[in-house]
Amino acid sequence: MAMVLGFSWGGWMTGGGAEELAADRAHDEVIAALVPICLQISQDDPERASKLATITEATTYQRRDAVMAAGWATVPGAEEPNRDLAQACMKGLNLDAA
Prior knowledge:
Largest sheet: none
Order of helices and strands: HHHHH
Mean pLDDT: 84
Distance between the termini: 50 Å
Number of domains: 1
Radius of gyration: 18 Å
Number of helices: 5
Low-confidence stretches: 1-8
Shape: elongated
């Protein structure tokens, strides 16, 4: 009984659970570190105004895809845009609640 209480109330977890939690936190930190790059790419984009208009006109559910299509969520050296980065970049651009 004490073991069950320890896992549920004590915050204990298995090794696999700890690894998953660490991986999730590391992923979130990497995305947070990449947001300034996304914002800088958007600032340097000569087509920024038209791309922002396209993103803003998109439905809430399509905005992340529009940020990806704009090329702002593709970091230098990557071949594909990152969906999580696009989502975080939208917050940085104040487009998540627009």
